[in-house]
Amino acid sequence: MIGTNQLAALDQLRDKAVEMSAEFAPKLFTAFIILAVGFFVTRWLLKLVARWLSKIELEPPVRELLMRVLWIMVMGMFLVMALSNLGVDLIPLIAGLGVAGAGIALAMQGVLGNLAAGLTIIFTKPFRVGEYVSMVGVEGRVEAIQLFNTRLSHPDLSRVIIPNRKIVGEILHNYGKIRQLDVVVGVAYSTDLNAALAAVNDVLNANKRVLQDPAPVVRVRVLADSSINIEVKPWVNVPDFGPAGGEINKAIVEEFRGRGISIPFPQREIRLLNPAA
Question: What CA–CA distance (Å, rounded) separates 150 from 228?
């Protein structure tokens, strides 16, 4: 059976619970109302800012970052108000968060490095989505610039994911949205060079992938051992870079054959100084 002392303790505990409930229930309810209002205010404010940002030319990662920072700031303000209403001392909490944040920062140096590099790329804009770039030993068309990595599409239809910290501070070759082909064709020394250059220009004008602005470069490149090499360097859009090279090479060969222009093969003249031996 329950003794008198135990009953008194239970009554005291019940009275204390009722007292605490009467004291903290309004504060809990107020804190809940503050957080609920904060949620709806943040949601409304994010929609308003998103509508405003849509009128400004910003990279998608920048817009995403601004929206996240705004959400953290507004909800953090309402959370502080709710905790203050409950009578929570925020100074020890902030100190504890600072210590925990330092530990997390040490454990996530690579992730934070990628984040810092991603912000550098986003704001300095060394390249944009849709441009063709070559960096850190790989190349491809930029598909997405994110906070932690950059995604490229390679000409062999594969995807390349590069951590942002590997990009910042490295040599970057940005081709933009067009690339220049480098085709070399040799003709015999007896060839009429004006006729050969005219034939190459006719081939380039007939190819729909070749851009006329900037104008293609067609000129004599070098006087080689067995041929005069003509340099053919037209510009094409990045998706046409692979197909255009093959088409131009094939068309030049056919055009030269049709006009009787010879493409010599390497040859050497050997003289015997002592035939009797």
Answer: 44
Segment-wise mean pLDDT, segments of 10 residues, the chain, 277 residues: 58 61 68 81 82 70 73 79 69 62 54 79 84 88 86 87 87 89 90 92 92 90 88 91 90 91 79 70
**What are the structural domains, with CATH classification, of the chain?**
20-107 (1.10.287), 126-176 (2.30.30.60), 178-259 (3.30.70.100)
CA distance 59 to 254: 47
Phi, psi of 168, rounded to the nearest 5 degrees: -65, 130
Structure pTM?
Answer: 0.58
> For 147-150, which contacts have Cβ atoms below 8 Å and span 24 or more sequence positions?
147/61, 147/64, 147/65, 147/114, 147/115, 147/118, 147/119, 147/122, 148/111, 148/114, 148/115, 148/118, 149/114, 149/118, 150/118, 150/121
